[in-house]
Specification:
Layout (H helix, E strand, L loop, with lengths): L5 E5 L3 E6 L3 E7 L2 E4 L5 E4 L1 H4 L9 E4 L2 E2 L2 E2 L2 H16 L7 E6 L5 H13 L4 E6 H8 L10 E6 L4 E7 L2 E8 L3 H16 L1 E2 L2 H11 L10 E8 L5 E7 H25 L2 H10 L1 E4 L8 H9 L3 E3 L6 H17 L7 E4 L1
Parallel strand pairs: 1-9, 9-10, 11-17, 17-18
Antiparallel strand pairs: 1-2, 2-3, 4-5, 4-6, 7-8, 10-19, 11-12, 12-13, 14-15, 15-16
Helix pairs in contact: 2-3, 4-10, 5-6, 5-7
Bound molecules: adenosine-5'-triphosphate.
Length: 339
Amino acid sequence: MSKTDIGIDLGTANTVITLGKKGVVLSEPSAIAYHTHTKEVLAVGKRAYQMIGKTPDYIEVIRPLSGGVISDDRMTQYMIREFILQVTGHRLTKPRIIICVPSFITDVEKRAVVEAAMSAGSRKAYLIDEPIAALIGAGVNIGKARGNMVVDIGGGTTDVAIVSMNGIVTSHSVRAAGNTLDQAIIRYMQTKYKLLIGERTAERLKIEMTNLYDPRADVTSWVKGRNLVSGLPEMQEISELEIFEAVEDVIADIIEAIKTVLEETPPELVGDIYENGVLMAGGGAMLGGLRKLVERTLQVKCVVAKDAIHCVAKGTAIAFRKMDTLLDGFENIAVYQFK
Ligand SMILES: Nc1ncnc2c1ncn2[C@@H]1O[C@H](COP(=O)(O)OP(=O)(O)OP(=O)(O)O)[C@@H](O)[C@H]1O
């Protein structure tokens, strides 16, 4: 592994970068702000994210990925280049890059990711399946003939997969994830209180107020928004129980996706999952009470990965070491190579 090797978890909500043996060196929202007339980029990452919902007409903030895949090639390339520049300090490092991609993306979408990496000056780009990266990032040995299950709840998608002998055996992906939860909270506030709240407020409520296991009516928080009838600013008190009501359908879709994968998995491997438990990764894994809810609903042990939001990126860094083993022909880890 070289000190210029770069691992990238290019996510719908966040981009996380690792550099050589240093580990995670950048973790920023996948967002970009640009001038709508001149198309000039004004801010990337955290600075762009802070502008969401607060810009004048001539500035737009976009998220260049949607549902785990690139929706705006040019802006994604720009964003990756900027982030790499931030971590390396200069452009001409010609690093090797591993980027992780959701297990369901098409070859065309893979190519778009690789082109984004190449445009950042990479000398070789490799892609690794996200579930594989999440498991190795959490320190799981996936080389054995043994079933390992991972549920990666990101911003755009929830990816559920069973991995054995370094490869994906069964997988399923749904759009029910962090952003859908935020949108569900926005809709709930509109319907119940005629209160319009912004995306960032909804995300804060989700992070601070979600309790999926034993939500209470007497645990509350105040929310600011605009009353849709009067058009005036308003404060509203909202309880854990109400947040639970707002998000329960989305959570049901996530649990259904886990169930689907368990149903489609060969029985020997399912047996391993009941013994090993399910690893939960991604920012959504930290949703209050989710782990206990999954355990109660599916009667299977669950573990939330340490540093769940960086787990996939850490896996890409570890994959550089595994890749050398791959080249020796000892392992068959699912890394695709592009020159
Ligand atoms: N403590 C928390 N509790 C609940 N949700 C959280 C928490 N912290 C972050 N999140 C949510 O996690 C999501 C981002 O997770 P992550 O960075 O793993 O996604 P991503 O990799 O960008 O997305 P994807 O994998 O879908 O492309 C956001 O929706 C964010 O609101």
